[in-house]
């Protein structure tokens, strides 16, 4: 039987007060709708139909790489109307999961449970019971069986006391959607076509309406404003942090950790407070990350220690490396094992060989540095002539003196040494010493100027 996923994403999201469509607002670094599409993909759905409206072009562009079928709802006449516009593309048979683009944390497990419960009945929904369900559609039951969903605005005083509400996530047989949706009316308090009315239609058809509850409440939390977005971000972060800790990652304080993507971590990885991990990162065994680091799309091999406030992006770091504090690795930085990178060192598109060191204040860009070399404090690779980038090649066991300007393209041979303060514009042969600096001038018994007395 085919499984389809229908995602409602046409709403305006007025309360976000943003020029960005609501479903593109990020949660844990990914658009809300991106989370839902990702979950739909994990379910191996035969097709994913997304209903768009407001900001449609931006939304479609953001997911151009995804295999999603887009259906436009030009006027937002209600959730029932939204699903109705998919009927021309919806297969006659099979079952559809109906999800909301602004309910990003629903899990594969809960949706599988929903599908299991709904396949025989033809209709099922995810509900949740809370102390106060104000605002939500209430689940009306008789003898324990669902009879209807009544929207808050249409509900009686008595019905408003019901604590079980509709989360807006359903599984419905396609045949039934084709049958029921054309029959919806907008004769209600909001003048909208309510998708929720299909529950009463199911009862009229003699069907039983299945229901499941999510394992965790945040799975069904929707985002309507920035306050809810921030609250859900925290809940999602806590959930991810817990999963990492269960896998053996030592987070010093899970409430001060942010993962905006995926972290593959070995054993005994230790992460201090206020670290942000973005994109996809892999940390080997015993990696330690100091406080305040921001690490994006970077692989760090076993035993490497990163001191506080270091910022990495698209870098590859070997094992037993020492970095920071305040180090910056930009895209293409590749550090072999046992490299030392100290404070205020910036590395871009540069390979640094085993055991080499740049411990203080340096810019290493577009360079190849061999093994066992030492880069003095304040050294700059002058890689850019204002038009083009050029390479600096530094061999093995090189000693670059303090405060060198290495004007690329330039090659420093194996075992070579450069004097402090040199501006190196020509290649240096293996095992040579190159010094480029003017001679020191000295005046004996020099008298400094005196302040003129008035
Ligand atoms: C809906 C449910 C309510 C449930 C609540 C859960 C109905 C009538 N009510 O209420 O029972 O408790 O969700 O959050 O369905 N959308 C469209 N096109 C439209 C209208 C809405 O795409 O014409 C999308 C919205 O962008 C949103 C989702 O559908 O993603 C839900 O719409 P929303 O207006 O938030 O529904 P509620 O009135 O809150
Ligand atoms: Ca809503």
UniProtKB/TrEMBL annotation:
Binds 1 Mg(2+) ion per subunit. Signal peptide: none annotated. Keywords: Acyltransferase, Cell shape, Cell wall biogenesis/degradation, Cytoplasm, Magnesium, Metal-binding, Multifunctional enzyme, Nucleotidyltransferase, Peptidoglycan synthesis, Repeat, Transferase. InterPro entries: Bifunctional_GlmU, GlmU-like, GlmU_C_LbH, GMPPB_C, Hexapep, MobA-like_NTP_Trfase, Nucleotide-diphossugar_trans, Trimer_LpxA-like_sf. Acetyl-CoA binds at residues 377, 383-384, 420, 437. The active site is at 360 (proton acceptor). Residues 1-226 are annotated as: Pyrophosphorylase. It catalyses: N-acetyl-alpha-D-glucosamine 1-phosphate + UTP + H(+) = UDP-N-acetyl-alpha-D-glucosamine + diphosphate; alpha-D-glucosamine 1-phosphate + acetyl-CoA = N-acetyl-alpha-D-glucosamine 1-phosphate + CoA + H(+). UDP-N-acetyl-alpha-D-glucosamine binds at residues 8-11, 22, 73, 78-79, 100-102, 137, 151, 166, 224, 330, 348, 363, 374. Its cofactor is Mg(2+). In the C-terminal section; belongs to the transferase hexapeptide repeat family. In the N-terminal section; belongs to the N-acetylglucosamine-1-phosphate uridyltransferase family. Homotrimer. Catalyzes the last two sequential reactions in the de novo biosynthetic pathway for UDP-N-acetylglucosamine (UDP-GlcNAc). The C-terminal domain catalyzes the transfer of acetyl group from acetyl coenzyme A to glucosamine-1-phosphate (GlcN-1-P) to produce N-acetylglucosamine-1-phosphate (GlcNAc-1-P), which is converted into UDP-GlcNAc by the transfer of uridine 5-monophosphate (from uridine 5-triphosphate), a reaction catalyzed by the N-terminal domain. This is Bifunctional protein GlmU. It comes from Acinetobacter chinensis.
């Amino acid at each position: 039987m085919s499984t389809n996923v229908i995602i409602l994403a046409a709403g305006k999201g007025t309360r976000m007060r943003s020029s960005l469509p609501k479903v593109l607002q990020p949660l844990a670094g990914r658009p809300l709708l991106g989370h839902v599409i990702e979950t739909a993909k994990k379910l191996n759905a035969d097709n994913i139909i997304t209903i768009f409206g407001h900001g449609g072009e931006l939304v479609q562009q953001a997911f151009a790489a995804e295999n999603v079928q887009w259906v436009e709802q030009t006027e937002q006449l209600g959730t029932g109307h939204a699903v109705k516009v998919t009927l021309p593309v919806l297969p006659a048979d099979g079952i559809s999961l109906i999800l909301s683009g602004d309910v990003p944390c629903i899990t594969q497990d809960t949706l599988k449970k929903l599908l299991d419960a709904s396949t025989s009945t033809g209709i099922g929904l995810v509900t949740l019971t809370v102390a106060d369900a104000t605002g939500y559609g209430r689940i009306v039951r008789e003898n324990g069986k669902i009879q209807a969903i009544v929207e808050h605005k249409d509900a009686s005083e008595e019905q408003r006391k019901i604590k079980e509400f509709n989360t807006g996530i359903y599984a419905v047989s396609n045949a039934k959607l084709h049958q029921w949706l054309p029959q919806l009316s907008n004769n209600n308090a909001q003048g909208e076509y309510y998708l929720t009315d299909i529950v009463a239609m199911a009862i009229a058809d003699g069907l039983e309406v299945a229901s499941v509850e999510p394992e965790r409440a945040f799975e069904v939390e929707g985002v309507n404003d920035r306050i809810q977005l921030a609250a859900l971000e925290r809940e999602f972060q806590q959930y991810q942090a817990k999963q990492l800790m269960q896998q053996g990652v030592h987070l010093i304080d899970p409430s001060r950790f942010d993962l905006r993507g995926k972290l593959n971590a070995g054993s005994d990885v230790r992460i201090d407070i206020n670290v942000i991990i973005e994109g996809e990162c892999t940390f080997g065994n015993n990696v330690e990350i100091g406080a305040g680091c921001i690490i994006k799309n970077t692989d760090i091999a076993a035993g490497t220690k990163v001191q506080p406030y270091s910022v990495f992006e698209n870098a590859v770091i070997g094992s037993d490396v020492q970095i920071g504090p305040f180090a910056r690795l930009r895209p293409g930085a590749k550090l072999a094992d046992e490299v030392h990178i100290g404070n205020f060192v910036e590395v871009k598109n540069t390979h640094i060989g085993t055991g080499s060191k740049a411990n203080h204040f340096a810019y290493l860009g577009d360079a190849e540095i061999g093994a066992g070399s030492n880069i003095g404090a304040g050294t700059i690779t002058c890689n850019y002539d204002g038009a083009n980038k050029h390479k600096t090649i530094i061999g093995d066991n090189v000693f670059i003196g303090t405060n060198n300007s290495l004007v690329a393209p330039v090659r420093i041979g194996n075992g070579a040494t450069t004097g402090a303060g040199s501006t190196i514009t020509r290649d240096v042969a293996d095992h040579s010493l190159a010094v480029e600096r003017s001679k020191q001038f000295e005046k004996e018994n020099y008298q400094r100027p005196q302040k003129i007395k008035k």
